[in-house]
From TrEMBL:
GO MF entry, a single one: cyclic-guanylate-specific phosphodiesterase activity
InterPro entries: Cyclic-di-GMP_PDE-like, EAL_dom, EAL_sf, GGDEF_dom, HisKA_7TM, Nucleotide_cyclase, Rev_trsase/Diguanyl_cyclase
Keywords: Membrane, Transmembrane, Transmembrane helix
A Pfam family per the record: GGDEF
Boundaries of every GGDEF domain copy: 371-499
PANTHER family cross-referenced by the UniProt entry: CYCLIC DI-GMP PHOSPHODIESTERASE PDEF (PTHR33121), OXYGEN SENSOR PROTEIN DOSP (PTHR33121:SF71)
Keyword Transmembrane helix assigned: yes
Domain EAL: 508-759
Protein name: Diguanylate cyclase (GGDEF)-like protein
Length: 759
């Protein structure tokens, strides 16, 4: 028995230096406290082994002193370790001011007892085949044993108290320690009750504290890490499925359980993974390859779009498992869809917007080169009137119903969208287009509108695509051109782009390109149309512009004036004509013809693109002419934007001596508001006022009253567009002062004008 015990002690002692060495070089407080347990335990264990071989009384007393002293210091170390491990700083004072002093006194008394035996005595006992020295219980020995084992109880209470305070997750830190303390206490009590020389509790001491240290420093952190990582995994918004190297599922997080309503035993048989494995098989991958794909999952409660990725887990070169990461991309997909709608759809009608329609058409024409297509643009005639009469919400309803009609009647291979306002656009295979079907489509879908008195008229412009390389916006322009050709035609619903319109487009484009050059190279010429009295006496002229094209000859103003305004050079042309007029007036002045005037036109844009007052004053000063010789013609539309400032400019011009004429009165652009609000010197009446009337007598009376009113307001009256003696006689009788029209002369070049009137 002795031999077996010694071997066990030797094996135990062999591990002590290794543990002491590792702990010695560690700097943390817990390692130092464990060192304070192992060192006394080592010496106590050695002392107990020596006792088995001591045969004399004095050495036996000395060894027992070492044995009891180091056993007590080991208990102090256990208490210090427990206090440090539980962070119970309040107990450090008990150790410092009570436990350590008592232990020092106990150690001194134990070594004093070697000489006078006043604390305890020893005696020989027969155990087995050998004799051993055994201590005899005394009051002091019982007291110090109570103190020593009381330290264990104290340690146990500290650990138990902290154990009960901790949440369930953290209690794992204290399980092993409570078990070890209880086991040590039990074995010590058992040893005290047996009359045996072999104290196995010391071995248990060493095993328990070395094991507990390893558990606390390795197993417990690993358990806590696993638990915390599990909690973190459960908080993730993604799913995790973990498989071992045999392909068995060993873990799923809360996401998987909640969304698929199954655990680790059923997840691999779920339809999500069935779809995933099927796609992985189709991808023809090696087993080691990772794979990712999107799958759809639908249950009674939800519909999800998931992205599943799998990854190999390796330990060095060995495969230890595989895990699947399941990402819920439903929100991202929905957001991407909504963003695509915002990018590609018209918000009111949910049809394609202009940009996306162009993109879809370009793609279709790129890959379908054999089908003939119409590009069709529709327009609700006078739609603005609908908004004005019934309000914008009602107008929006009309537009939504128009979109519904397109969806309803258009074939599946038709691409359609909304350009802007009430203009819709479609790409329709030529073989599927039927005028009657498309004309009735809109009317039928508007039949639900109650108490809607306005008769909607739909116009459509069609361009048959014959050049697939043409940009879609250009095709759109051609369909628009066809649409505009029936703008004021309420009987024709469809207009097709044809060769005539093509030539018009080419001509328009040519003029737009050449007009800026014409202005710079003096191709634009000033023409003059005389203004005379009823007797034909010349009093002045109106300056008009004509284009002397080097190839096409003279281009009439009706063909290019609108283009000038469109390409924003109207103010440049106006300034050019003003300059020509002032130069000619200066020439006439030098020739002694100071009583003649030239009238020039002022457009609305002139008020905003230049300092009108400064420009005209500078021209007068430059050519040294009188402001009274340069008459300024304006229309009502020229002063409708910034009225107050524009009227202020006109007033200052009149103060400087310029004559201001109201042009085109009676042509549809003027009204009595002009007479009321604008101070002018001459009222120019357009003879179109009479030509538009069915009742000549009534028109004559109105014209007479206008002339009388102008006279009473201090204005001269000039009638333009005069073509007959009869008109001159009537206007003269009515009080008209001056006349202008083909009856006297058409607009002519300056040299022809001068030759006629000056020679």
């Amino acid at each position: 028995m002795k031999t077996i015990f010694v071997i066990l002690m030797g094996i135990t002692l062999a591990f002590f230096p290794v543990g002491v060495k590792k702990l010695f070089f560690k700097k943390d407080s817990l390692s130092k406290r464990m060192l304070a347990v192992l060192v006394p335990a080592s010496f106590s264990l050695i002392a107990h082994c020596i006792l088995l071989f001591v045969t004399k009384e004095f050495p036996a007393y000395l060894v027992y002193a070492f044995y009891f002293a180091f056993a007590n210091w080991m208990s102090v170390g256990v208490l210090a370790f427990c206090v440090c491990y539980t962070n119970s700083d309040i107990h450090n004072k008990v150790i410092k001011f009570f436990v350590v002093p008592v232990s020092i006194i106990d150690t001194l008394l134990l070594f004093a007892n070697v000489f006078n035996h006043f604390l305890f005595t020893i005696h020989k006992i027969q155990y087995g085949s050998g004799e051993f020295f055994r201590y005899s219980f005394s009051l002091f020995l019982v007291g110090r044993l109570v103190f020593t084992y009381g330290l264990f109880v104290y340690s146990f209470i500290i650990i138990l108290k902290r154990f009960l305070k901790e949440p369930p997750t953290l209690r794992v830190k204290y399980y092993s320690f409570l078990i070890y303390l209880a086991l040590i206490t039990f074995i010590n009590i058992l040893y005290l009750g047996l009359d045996s020389p072999y104290n196995y509790s010391i071995i248990v001491y060493a095993f328990c504290f070395i094991s507990s240290y390893n558990v606390l420093n390795r197993a417990v952190p690993n358990i806590l890490i696993q638990h915390v990582l599990g909690r973190i995994a459960d908080e993730l918004k993604n799913g995790i499925v973990l498989l071992d190297n045999d392909g068995l599922c060993i873990y799923v997080n809360a996401f998987v359980k909640q969304n698929f309503e199954c655990g680790k035993d059923e997840i691999l048989h779920n339809e999500v993974f069935a779809d995933y494995f099927s796609r992985r098989k189709e991808a023809i991958l090696e087993p080691m390859d990772s794979f990712s794909c999107e799958v759809e999952y639908q249950s009674e409660r939800k519909r999800l779009t998931l992205n599943i990725c799998d990854y190999i887990i390796k330990d060095g070169e060995s495969i230890v498992g595989r895990y699947y990461l399941i990402e819920d991309i439903t929100a991202l997909k929905n957001q991407a869809y909504e963003e695509k709608l915002l990018r590609t759809r018209d918000p009111l009608t949910e049809l394609y917007n202009k940009e996306y329609f162009f993109e879809k058409v370009a793609h279709r024409l790129k890959y379908d080169r054999f089908t003939k297509y119409y590009l069709i643009i529709s327009d609700i005639v006078n739609f603005k009137l609908v908004n004005d009469l019934h309000g914008k919400p009602f107008g929006d309803t009309i537009l939504r119903r128009s979109a519904d009609a397109i969806r309803k009647y258009a074939a599946r291979d038709v691409i359609y969208g909304r350009l802007y306002n009430d203009h819709f656009i479609m790409l329709v295979p030529k073989r599927r287009f039927d005028e009657e079907v498309y004309a009735n489509a809109f009317k039928n879908d508007m039949s639900y509108l109650q108490n809607f008195s306005y008769n909607l008229i739909i116009h459509m412009g069609l361009y048959e695509i014959d050049d697939l390389t043409m940009p879609v916006p250009v095709m759109c322009d051609r369909a628009f051109l066809a649409l505009r050709s029936i703008k004021n035609d309420y009987k024709t619903a469809f207009a097709y782009y044809d060769d005539h319109l093509r030539q018009e487009v080419l001509k328009l484009q040519m003029l737009m390109n050449e007009l800026p050059v014409a202005l710079k190279t003096n191709q634009l010429k000033m023409y003059l149309q005389p203004q005379v009295t009823k007797n034909g006496t010349l009093v002045g002229a109106e300056a008009l512009v004509r284009w002397h094209h080097p190839i096409r000859g003279i281009i009439p103003p009706g063909e290019f004036i609108e283009i000038i305004e469109k390409i924003n050079i109207i103010s440049d042309v106006d300034r050019y004509i003003w300059e020509c007029a002032c130069a000619k007036l200066a020439e006439w002045k030098r020739a002694g013809k100071t009583n003649l005037t030239i009238s020039v036109n002022i457009s609305a844009r002139d008020f905003f693109t230049m300092n009108l007052l400064e420009t005209l004053v500078n021209l007068i000063k430059k050519y040294e002419i009188s402001p009274k010789s340069l008459n300024l013609e304006i229309t009502e539309t020229a002063v409708i934007y910034d009225v107050e400032n524009q009227l202020n400019v006109l007033d200052k011009l009149r103060e400087l001596g310029f004559i201001v004429e109201m042009d085109d009165f009676g042509s549809g652009y003027s009204s009595l508001n002009m007479l009321k609000d604008i101070a002018v010197d001459v009222l120019k009446i357009d003879m179109a006022f009479l030509q538009k009337s069915k009742d000549d007598a009534k028109s004559h009376k109105i014209l007479e009253k206008i002339i009388i009113l102008a006279k009473e307001l201090g204005m001269k009256v000039l009638t333009e567009g005069v073509e007959s003696d009869k008109q001159i006689d009537f206007l003269s009788a009515a009080g008209c002062d001056l006349f202008q029209g083909y009856y006297f002369s058409r607009p002519v070049p300056v040299n022809e004008f001068e030759e006629k009137y000056f020679r």
